Structures are given as C-alpha cells and as structure tokens.
C-alpha cells in the first residue's frame, strides 16, 4: 500500500487576503468549508505526513547535506562552503528551508487538530487521526529542537492577521511537550499495529515506541543531560522488542533492496518515508534517495546517480573482514558508460561511494535521471536493538546479558550468521561500561551510517568536537594529497555548530526572536 499524499492548498492554512469580487466565492477550499467528513480529515492527515518527504528533509537533504559533516562521509566535490563543510551563516538558504518545511508540517498538524472534532464519525477513527497528528507535530518539533535548540512552540493555527510574535521556548519545555504528545499518540494507537497496517509509511504503535526511545536518549545526553531518561529509553525500546512484531531481516543488503523496490518488510522497518513514481506519471511523489547519494552511474536506464557522497576511510576501516555491511555501504565499484554501463572495481579505499541506496535494483521504469521512488527509513529494528543495548548498559552500570544479546543480533546479521546462535563475530565478552559504550558508538556507525543519525549521536554523547578533531588530524597525516580537503568539515567545526543558527529571515519577520540568536552566530 502506498500513501499518495495530498498537498493541502494554502487556502486551508490562512484566510483570504482581500475581497476580489462582491460575490462570495464557492469554488475553493477554506477551513470553513473543509473538514466536514472523515475522508477530508484523512486527506489533511496525509498533508501533515507530506512535508517529511520534502527535498529539504527526507526527500534528499537530511541524509547528505545536513549530516555529511561527520566522520562517516564527505562530499566528493569537496566544496569550500556550505552546510556540508560547516561553513555557512544564518542567511543560508539550506538552513532557512529546513526550518520552514518543519513549521509547514507543524502548521498543517495544528490546523487539522483544531478542526478534528467537526465531522460526524466514529470516535475510534477520530482518535487514530488525532494520535497520528499529535505524533507528527511532535516529530517535527523533535527535528527542530535537536537542530536549533530553543524554538518557538506553536500549538494553534496561525491567524493571518496576527503579528509574528513567537518567542523561543526552552528546549526542556519543547522536549516535555514532545514526550507528552507522543505518549498520548501511543495510547490512542494501541490497535494500530504495524502487522495490521502491512506497510511502514504510516505510524504504528511500535514505531511511536521506537521514536520515543530515540527522543529519550537525546534528552539523556547533551545538552539536557537528564540521565533519568536512559531508563525511559530502555523501557520504550523493550516495548518494541517485547511486542513480538519485529525482527531483523536475515540479509542486511536486502533491507535496502526492499526500499528500492517498494517492498515492505514491516518486521525490520518500523517507519519509513515513502516515495513513489518517476516524475513522468500522474503521481509525482518522488525523492532523490539513490540519486545524490549512491553508486556513481551515468546510465539513465540503469539508474543515474551523481554519487555526491563518499565514505570516509574511517568508516571503511571500522568494518572487519567478513562484515557484509562494508562492501554494501562502501561500494567497491562504480558504473562506467552512459549506456549499457558495467561495473568497474574501485580498489582505492579512500574514494569509495556510499553504496547503501542502489538504483540498479529499482523496478519502476522508465527511470528518471534525477528523481527516484526509493523509500528512506527513519527508524529500523537494528536501531532499536542498539538503543536498548546502550540504555541497558547505562542503567545497570555495565553491559548485561540483555545488552549483549541485542548487540550481537545486529552483528550476527552483519556477518550472515543465525541471529540466535553465538558466533565468533559476537562482541568481546567482559567489557566494562565505558568499553561497551565505545563499542556501541562504533557499531551504530557500522550499521546506521548515513541514515541521518550520526551527527546527532556524536552531539548527544558529547564527543562531536573531539571526534572530528581527531578525524581531521588523521586525514591530514595519512590521506593522499588530493583528498586532504576531505577534512575541511572537521577543520571548520566549532562549538557553535552544535546547533544551527536561527534563520536570518525568521529573525527579521519574528520580532520576538530579535536578540535571541544561538551562541556564536
């Protein structure tokens, strides 16, 4: 099943600016003449989901623009300015658009929630829509607070005539509201299991639980450092595991082939952003997953990819022999030829493309030169297992059998081994709390590289600056001369980059933000 998202017209989000005719218009949508049926509520809900797939978020840039400035990847063109290399200002269009799209999603959710009680419909169905809208609004705020810190927290629709006076809300309060709304959503969606849904593009009970585990881990780390949240993260992760609805796909590679072929593996993939079509058909809900980030290919029929992102030597070296993830995530080949392209081996470990999303597996034809139907996972079951292991280690002052089991399931899958049989690839026994955490930090990179979590992980662990400094030193001492510039993101990194700046445009129109920019900006 594929959700075809409806873009709710702007007329639903703001009042008319003026009277163009003496007669009252009746042929366009407003909040007054919409939201009258259950079907219209569902269309509006699809509009709330829609902004997550925008190119400014999971449709393109969240995977390689906002998160390339880590030790996992670097831009192949090695630019000297931009978000990817930590050289930007509050006037950056990327920063402004990132902020804008999140608030568009929030506004759509606010409008829906303000009108949700209007139609006559079964209350059970209304509760499901309410739960999804509350969760999605909270998720947009989670994106904002983890990137910008204190942000304006709007919980009502914007009045067109109201002045732009929305002060920043402290991060702790924003997080508290996120937890409140997501917890409410989880209680409202008790019967919306992923097994019943049969696909991962819509929020299920266990997807909410998994995201709540992630949110609590972020709260436990920098900057809030509320260590009590480790136990909450552990409890939410355990709910996912104990639901019995999820397990790892035996093949790491197949996980991403499924995303390319629009096949739903609801046991592995808890929540994914859906894309559809080839920009040549009726429904144009494509993204660029596999086009900007993937294996270099100029053959449009096979699936053109600009391969804008390479794996770092650090990522490549994190893998040991026998780990299937290495040659999937760090592609050992490129495609050569504009037609009938063939695989050409790449033996230089410093210049391997990120190969996680591969267009050769797409089944929808004809393929578009830029746009793709590949889905993007927000959270997978392997992430839940690694979060459980991390939280279990912290709560108990060291790794328990439960923590080792969760970690080793991920590792055994990576080596093509049975998930429930001890193997030589298992994590070393006898590690202390600090050693186990370090192992988890590396394992998350091996498993989840370039899935838009590394930067946030490094920040919450409080090691972003030190890790990138060490990475830059290694590059400058060991890289071939032509690749020294791949250290530029690490060299440019300053403490101010722990948060993005509040967009200059927003500061200029929202008078309550003036004088309240993030430190260093």
From TrEMBL:
Pfam family, one: SusD-like_3
Gene Ontology terms: cellular component: cell outer membrane
Residue ranges of every copy of the SusD-like N-terminal domain listed in the record: 35-217
RagB/SusD domain boundaries: 354-521
InterPro entries in the record: SusD-like_N, SusD_RagB_dom, TPR-like_helical_dom_sf
Main location: membrane
Location within or outside the cell: Cell outer membrane
Endpoints of the signal sequence: 1-21
Keywords per UniProt: Cell outer membrane, Membrane, Signal
Protein family: Belongs to the SusD family.
Protein's UniProt name: Membrane protein
Annotated organism of origin: Chitinophaga cymbidii
